[in-house]
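Fold it.
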Amino acid sequence: MINHFKQIVNGYNPNRMMSVDLLRGVTIFTMILVNNPGSWGNLYSPLAHAVWHGWTITDLVFPFFLFIVGLSIALSANQTASSCDKKNQANTIGINRFELLQIVARTVKLFLLGWLLGLSYYNFYDPQFSWFNDKLLSIRWFGVLQRIAIVYFVCAICFRLMTSRQLIILCMVLLGAYWTAMMLLPYIDNNGNQLVGVLLPGNNLAAYIDHHLFGVNHLYHKSTQPFASDPEGLLTTVPALVNCLIGILVAKSVLLKPNTPDEKTATVNQEQKVKQQIIKLLWMAFPMLLLAYIASNWFPFNKNLWSPPYVLLSSSLAIIVLALARWLIDLRGAKLWTAPFLVFGSNAIALFMLSGFVARLISMVKIDGLSLKASVYSMVELISDDAKLNSLCFALLFMLVMYCPLYWMYQKKLFWKV
């Protein structure tokens, strides 16, 4: 096992930032883990979403990923600039046709992958099942990959066209506009009552818009009242943009900040530079975290509504975890344990798609009347009398299975870039 981990770490590309890849790997690992328990009725509380207001570790996964998308937008632009030998190209303002086409192409691919995953189910054992009617005509327009697509498209263009100061102003405008809309814009329920500032499941402005714009059959929560709703709906995507924009700002202002004149004329101790970056990260995170808890007195933390305090909370915690990763890897030299997460993080979208297909496949295939998942889980249940532990063990077994093809791809240097 140790030699296996050493092989992975020793083969890591030195031109990449390990702490960012680690953060991506931990995030996608947690995302797939919490999406594939043995039993949804037996979950440890940190591995379940908050019922409505509030937050758990699981609620941080998606905004962490959007934060990492922001980091990647800036870091990849910097790597392109370095390979083209164009000084500070990552910090220049403007976008050319080729860059715009790349952004559009990636956006379309992410959208199509999201729809493909949503359509990849067939009930072979129900003669009444119609894939055309039950899946295609009821396709969920929005989802995880679709939200990533929209956020990536908007933020990648903003990165190219706006300065850091303008990005900060944009973040404040987006959060302020969303807060104002959710709290002050009136809407009409099914009984003709005018409502304003309601923040209940299925009864809020975001649900009202999604219900009337997309229709009940195309939303995730079809039975919420008075409106069907979707945690990745249209209006709630607006504050989600800020998680990604903050990732861009962190990369531009800390990770990619140009050297000072003094640093250009002298050999700067790398360890000291990392310490300075960690301090800057923490100085960014803690005021944001404090502001999040103050603001939550008026608009509670809520992942489904992607509330502004939730944006500030998740972004500040993502920055703190990034600072911790930099401290562990670049200062303490603790790299060996990162190996499996580097494998997962190097092909995050491939892992998300593969895990989605496999999860659907093991629920479709039946053995003696039981789905393949249920059959495997019945064996896992022999581990202990603790139902929650057994459910977690199944999820870990699922991740072990996922690790095998991802490690093969890592070995072959097959990195799927959407």
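The two ends are 31 Å apart (CA to CA).
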